[in-house]
Design a protein that fits this description.
Number of helices: 9
Mean pLDDT: 73
Structural class: alpha/beta
Largest sheet: 8 strands, mixed
Shape: elongated
Order of helices and strands: HEEEHHHHHEHEEEEHH
Number of domains: 1
CATH superfamily: ABC-type transport auxiliary lipoprotein component
CATH architecture: 3-Layer(aba) Sandwich
CATH topology: Rossmann fold
Helix content: 40-55%
Low-confidence stretches: 1-21, 56-98, 114-121
Oligomer: single chain
Radius of gyration: 22 Å
Number of strands: 8
Length: 284
């Protein structure tokens, strides 16, 4: 009996460890470093997250050449499974606006293909600019910062001791900016939850056809009176690697699902670690 219990404990520990390694993580913080109950203004950053096509152990020239081809592919033709006509002279802006997830997948596709076919040529200045516009433009259309903040508001509904409001247009405009939130104090908010998606990475190991989405989030809990930072936490969620063909099929449907999975996990983790649990005597 004792041996069986030990075995069950060991198996449970291994399963938990495996899930944590393939899923998300959060930096540790003080137990009392949480938002105080009351009214909370949730603000989102106002800039596009840093992005990177992170191909491990791939030569610089090979990765760069493929990335340029992927950017061009995103602007000239639909993804696999799309019934839309080729883009032709319409240009990248309209394509990214109509099919943001498909465009994002297309911007990465050439990179994967070039490495697999052992192509290696340096990027010209024009190609580099085209790549940055394609990938960054697709991320802009996804409204990542706003979507992340709104998901946290939804996830926090299970904490009735808080009254959350999503406040637009006031979050940091750059990664290092510390905005003046005095107006939120005058509006009567007890605290502020500042959310910044700092990175959205796409990673793949050499010789592998599987790609993972890796999203990084920074959260700051700020007291309004007096104004001071109560806690700062960093969170990361990495999706299960999947064949890249999954992302390019059906106009990027599974890529969208990977983004939604990342939003959900990160939002629930923010609520679990930065919000207090309601008690029988707690009141908003």
């Amino acid at each position: 009996m004792f041996a069986t219990k030990k075995l069950r404990y060991a198996v449970g520990l291994l399963v938990s460890l495996g899930l944590s390694l393939m899923g998300g993580c959060a930096t540790p913080g003080a137990r009392d470093a949480r938002l105080p109950p009351g009214s909370v203004a949730v603000v989102a950053a106002r800039f596009t997250p840093e992005t990177s096509l992170n191909l491990e152990e791939v030569g610089k020239k090979g990765a760069a050449g493929g990335a340029a081809e992927g950017a061009a592919a995103a602007t000239r033709s639909p993804t696999v499974g799309s019934s839309s006509p080729p883009l032709g002279a319409v240009g990248p802006v309209l394509w990214l606006a109509v099919l943001p997830f498909a465009a994002l997948a297309g911007a990465i596709a050439g990179d994967i293909a070039a490495v697999e076919s052992a192509k290696a040529h340096a990027l010209t200045e024009e190609q580099l600019q085209q790549l940055n516009q394609a990938v960054s433009g697709a991320l802009v259309d996804l409204n990542i910062q706003e979507t992340m903040a709104q998901q946290v508001v939804v996830a926090a509904k299970e904490r009735p001791i808080y009254r959350l409001s999503y406040v637009t247009g006031i979050g940091p405009g750059t990664k290092d900016e510390r905005p003046d939130y005095s107006e939120l104090t005058r509006q009567g908010y007890d605290s502020i939850l500042e959310l910044t998606v700092t990175k959205v990475l796409f990673s793949r190991k050499t010789q592998s056809k599987r790609v993972a989405l890796d999203m990084h989030l920074r959260a700051r809990a700020i007291q309004t009176a007096p104004m001071k930072v109560l806690a700062k936490r960093d969170f990361e969620y990495k999706t299960r690697p999947r064949p890249f063909s999954d992302w390019t099929a059906a106009e990027g449907l599974l890529l969208r699902q990977d983004f939604e999975q990342s939003y959900n996990w990160l939002a629930n983790e923010v609520v679990a670690t930065m919000f207090s649990q309601p008690t029988k005597t707690s009141e908003p």
